[in-house]
Amino acid sequence: MKQTKFFSPTLNDIYEAVLDICAQIVEKGLSVDVIVGISRGGLVPSRLFSDILDVNQVEIVKAEYYTGIMEKARKPVVSVPEDLNVKNMNVLLVDDVADTGDTLIEVEKELLKMGAANVYKATLYVKPWNKAKIDFYHRMVDAWIIFPWEIAETIRVAKESERGEVYKAIRLPDRMIKKICKLIKGKGSKN
Question: Which candidate among 23, 24, 42, 114 keeps its CA 20 to 30 Å from the CA of 123?
Answer without folding.
Answer: 114
